[in-house]
Amino acid sequence: MKDQMSCCCCVPLGMAYHIIACFEIIFMTFLIVQSLEYYYAAEDGEKAKAHHIIKLFYNWIFYMLVASISVYSVPRIFVYLFTICRSKSYSRLQLYFTTRIITFLLLALIHITMFVVLF
Questions:
Q1: What are phi and psi of 14, to 5 degrees?
Q2: What's the Cα-to-Cα distance from 63 to each of 57, 69, 116, rounded to whole Å?
Q3: DSSP string, 36-49
Q4: pTM of the full predicted structure?
Protein backbone atom coordinates (compact mmCIF):
# COMPACT_ATOMS: atom_id res chain seq x y z
CA MET A 1 0.00 0.00 0.00
CA LYS A 2 2.66 2.44 -1.04
CA ASP A 3 1.53 6.09 -1.06
CA GLN A 4 -2.03 5.16 -0.03
CA MET A 5 -3.87 6.96 2.71
CA SER A 6 -6.47 5.12 4.73
CA CYS A 7 -9.13 7.77 5.29
CA CYS A 8 -7.79 11.09 4.04
CA CYS A 9 -4.66 10.71 6.22
CA CYS A 10 -6.35 11.05 9.60
CA VAL A 11 -9.81 11.75 10.94
CA PRO A 12 -9.50 15.54 11.61
CA LEU A 13 -7.86 16.21 8.26
CA GLY A 14 -10.37 13.96 6.51
CA MET A 15 -13.34 15.71 8.13
CA ALA A 16 -11.92 19.15 7.33
CA TYR A 17 -11.31 18.01 3.76
CA HIS A 18 -14.98 17.15 3.27
CA ILE A 19 -16.42 20.02 5.32
CA ILE A 20 -14.42 22.61 3.36
CA ALA A 21 -15.69 21.12 0.10
CA CYS A 22 -19.29 21.43 1.36
CA PHE A 23 -18.65 25.08 2.25
CA GLU A 24 -17.24 25.65 -1.23
CA ILE A 25 -20.40 24.24 -2.81
CA ILE A 26 -22.51 26.51 -0.60
CA PHE A 27 -20.30 29.48 -1.52
CA MET A 28 -20.61 28.66 -5.23
CA THR A 29 -24.40 28.54 -4.88
CA PHE A 30 -24.28 31.95 -3.18
CA LEU A 31 -22.14 33.35 -6.02
CA ILE A 32 -24.58 32.02 -8.62
CA VAL A 33 -27.57 33.58 -6.84
CA GLN A 34 -25.79 36.90 -6.43
CA SER A 35 -24.65 36.98 -10.04
CA LEU A 36 -28.18 36.32 -11.27
CA GLU A 37 -29.48 39.06 -8.97
CA TYR A 38 -27.00 41.59 -10.38
CA TYR A 39 -27.73 40.43 -13.94
CA TYR A 40 -31.47 40.97 -13.50
CA ALA A 41 -30.87 44.28 -11.71
CA ALA A 42 -28.82 45.47 -14.68
CA GLU A 43 -31.50 44.45 -17.17
CA ASP A 44 -34.76 45.23 -15.38
CA GLY A 45 -34.03 47.96 -12.85
CA GLU A 46 -35.57 51.36 -13.36
CA LYS A 47 -32.43 53.00 -12.01
CA ALA A 48 -30.36 51.05 -14.51
CA LYS A 49 -32.56 52.27 -17.34
CA ALA A 50 -32.31 55.85 -16.13
CA HIS A 51 -28.51 55.90 -15.68
CA HIS A 52 -26.06 54.11 -17.92
CA ILE A 53 -23.40 54.14 -15.15
CA ILE A 54 -25.59 52.10 -12.81
CA LYS A 55 -26.21 49.49 -15.49
CA LEU A 56 -22.49 49.38 -16.24
CA PHE A 57 -21.76 48.94 -12.51
CA TYR A 58 -24.22 46.02 -12.24
CA ASN A 59 -22.74 44.43 -15.35
CA TRP A 60 -19.18 44.68 -13.98
CA ILE A 61 -20.24 43.10 -10.68
CA PHE A 62 -21.97 40.34 -12.66
CA TYR A 63 -18.79 39.73 -14.68
CA MET A 64 -16.71 39.60 -11.50
CA LEU A 65 -19.04 37.03 -9.94
CA VAL A 66 -19.04 34.86 -13.07
CA ALA A 67 -15.24 35.03 -13.20
CA SER A 68 -15.10 34.08 -9.52
CA ILE A 69 -17.32 31.08 -10.16
CA SER A 70 -15.35 29.90 -13.18
CA VAL A 71 -11.86 30.51 -11.78
CA TYR A 72 -12.39 29.81 -8.08
CA SER A 73 -15.31 27.52 -7.30
CA VAL A 74 -15.50 25.19 -10.29
CA PRO A 75 -11.81 24.13 -10.28
CA ARG A 76 -11.86 23.51 -6.54
CA ILE A 77 -14.96 21.37 -6.70
CA PHE A 78 -13.68 19.51 -9.76
CA VAL A 79 -10.34 18.70 -8.10
CA TYR A 80 -12.16 17.67 -4.89
CA LEU A 81 -14.39 15.25 -6.81
CA PHE A 82 -11.40 14.00 -8.83
CA THR A 83 -9.45 13.38 -5.63
CA ILE A 84 -12.33 11.73 -3.80
CA CYS A 85 -13.32 9.43 -6.69
CA ARG A 86 -9.82 8.14 -7.21
CA SER A 87 -7.58 6.46 -4.69
CA LYS A 88 -6.62 8.76 -1.86
CA SER A 89 -2.90 9.28 -2.19
CA TYR A 90 -0.61 11.93 -0.83
CA SER A 91 0.16 13.26 -4.32
CA ARG A 92 -3.57 13.80 -5.02
CA LEU A 93 -3.99 15.67 -1.75
CA GLN A 94 -1.01 17.82 -2.68
CA LEU A 95 -2.70 18.56 -6.01
CA TYR A 96 -5.89 19.50 -4.16
CA PHE A 97 -4.17 21.90 -1.77
CA THR A 98 -2.03 23.39 -4.53
CA THR A 99 -5.18 24.03 -6.55
CA ARG A 100 -6.75 25.71 -3.52
CA ILE A 101 -3.78 28.08 -3.18
CA ILE A 102 -3.66 28.91 -6.90
CA THR A 103 -7.41 29.53 -7.13
CA PHE A 104 -7.29 31.72 -4.04
CA LEU A 105 -4.55 33.85 -5.61
CA LEU A 106 -6.55 34.09 -8.85
CA LEU A 107 -9.64 35.12 -6.89
CA ALA A 108 -7.64 37.83 -5.13
CA LEU A 109 -6.34 39.04 -8.49
CA ILE A 110 -9.90 39.18 -9.90
CA HIS A 111 -11.18 41.14 -6.93
CA ILE A 112 -8.28 43.60 -6.90
CA THR A 113 -8.70 44.17 -10.65
CA MET A 114 -12.43 44.71 -10.29
CA PHE A 115 -11.88 47.08 -7.37
CA VAL A 116 -9.51 49.18 -9.47
CA VAL A 117 -11.88 49.16 -12.46
CA LEU A 118 -14.91 50.10 -10.37
CA PHE A 119 -13.01 52.71 -8.40
A1: -65, -45
A2: 10, 10, 14
A3: HHHHHHHHH-HHHH
A4: 0.67
